[in-house]
Specification:
Blueprint lengths: L1 H12 L6 E2 L2 E2 L6 E2 L5 H7 L20 E2 L9 H29 L12 H26 L19 H31 L5 H20 L7 E3 L7 E3 L2 H32 L10 H49 L19 H22 L3 H8 L2 H5 L7 H9 L1
Antiparallel strand pairs: 1-2, 3-4, 5-6
Helix pairs in contact: 1-8, 3-4, 3-9, 4-5, 4-9, 5-6, 5-7, 5-8, 7-8, 8-9
């Protein structure tokens, strides 16, 4: 962690920096001292202490009251700038891509939408979900870091401006994409095998997914769970890992299981129909579902590691800062302080793993666009759309005829 080397330079430049600066207790830059006896209450307000995690000599006891900066010291500022830039730029692209697919597959252009066409509605719902992720990213782009860091050393909480809204939008979009990915895999199997689904059954599935998504997105507000996490996310999201497991990761695990079954059944159906001239057109959606499966799998592995090792990562950072200051005070011959030897710098979260996580979440909206925009199905939807037929450029039955022939 290169950040810690900058701490060393600060210490050296100030000859070990005293804990008293102009009569005020000071912490090493970029940390900030906060006098408190209620660290738990402060956490609820958004303050994150470095938490040395072990008894300290009196001369160093002030370090337990040092606040972590927002955004956190797990990454250098250049790294955070890269993360923020990725979310802003890629989020805007994903928002636009999702909106285009929503328009084509939604009721504005899709004549089959209100006929409860299973496939087009499923694609629309997935695009709608990634659209909400894009909206949350645009909120971050508009408000910048102030949305997650209302103060230099305080992380946003649900009571802060825009954080609750951003958290709900992100959760709603991300969770929705997960559940509709699962159904997209089942839809692929139905299309590849030629099986049909009762429209009433599909209506029940449609309503159930959206109702469940709404409940799981708004319920965390009852526990004041939305806020800025000091690692993993750039947006506001669910703070406590047990709440994350209950309201997101459990649903993702179930969706991955369904997705895996759907992928296997689709492959099996395609193998059985290798002589069918329509087999190739089912391969592209299968590739999309497989890529989504891999991305969601990476997300759960990454966040699982983060959640399980969060306290460990904090302790590494805290111990390294404590070691540096201990040695600095020892060199100043402060009574009672013993030189602790060379301070080691252990890796916590790599830049590439964090970047990949943020990238994969934003890639969802771009993928649905890339895989469906130029498909034959999309071209038929455009040809049969209200707008195309209004100007005499299309055939209102084009998509339905294709559907009858192949589905």
């Amino acid at each position: 962690m290169k950040f810690l080397f900058s701490v060393i330079l600060v210490i050296i430049s100030f000859l070990g920096i005293s804990k008293i600066v102009n009569g005020q207790i000071a912490c090493p830059s970029p940390f900030l001292y906060r006098a408190t006896n209620d660290t738990v209450g402060d956490y609820d307000l958004g303050y994150q202490y470095i938490n040395i995690g072990k008894p300290l000599p009196p001369q160093l006891s002030f370090l337990n009251n040092c606040l972590m900066p927002c955004q956190s010291s797990f990454f250098e500022q250049d790294s955070w700038n890269s993360f923020n830039k990725l979310v802003k730029q890629m989020g805007a692209v994903a928002f636009t891509c999702s909106a285009i697919i929503m328009i084509i597959y939604g009721p504005l252009m899709n004549r089959s939408f209100f006929k409860f066409d299973r496939h087009t509605i499923t694609v629309f719902c997935f695009a709608l979900s990634t659209f909400f992720i894009g909206v949350s990213d645009l909120m971050f782009a508009t408000n910048d870091v102030d949305m997650v860091c209302p103060e230099s050393h305080r992380y946003a909480r649900q009571t802060d401006k825009t954080c609750a809204t951003n958290g709900v939008l992100f959760q709603f979009g991300w969770l929705g994409s997960v559940m509709w990915f699962a159904f997209l895999s089942i839809d692929g199997f139905f299309r590849a095998s030629g099986k049909k689904m009762n429209k009433i059954a599909f209506a029940i599935v449609l309503a159930s997914i959206w109702i469940l998504n709404i409940v799981l997105s708004f319920a965390p507000m009852g526990g004041d769970q939305y806020g800025a996490y000091f690692v993993g996310q750039v947006n506001c999201w669910i703070l406590v890992k047990n709440w994350q497991y209950a309201f997101f990761w459990a649903e993702l695990i179930v969706s991955l299981a369904i997705g895996f079954v759907g992928i296997c059944l689709t492959i099996y159906s395609l193998i059985r129909k290798t002589s069918d001239g329509n087999t190739l057109k089912h391969v592209t959606p299968l590739i999309l579902v497989f890529l989504l499966f891999c991305q969601y799998l990476y997300m759960i592995i990454f966040y699982g590691i983060i959640n399980e090792k969060k306290d460990h990562y904090q302790n590494i950072l805290a111990e390294q800062v404590g070691c540096i200051f201990n040695n600095a005070l020892a060199k100043m011959k402060v009574p009672g302080i013993v030189y602790a030897g060379e301070c080691t710098f252990n890796e916590t979260i790599t830049f590439s793993s964090q970047y990949a996580f943020l990238f994969f979440v934003r890639l969802l909206g771009i993928e649905i666009f890339a895989f469906y925009l130029f498909s034959k199905e999309t071209l038929l939807l455009i040809k049969s759309s209200y707008i195309a037929t209004m100007f005499g450029l299309g055939d209102k039955d084009a998509y339905d005829v294709e559907l009858e022939e192949t589905d």
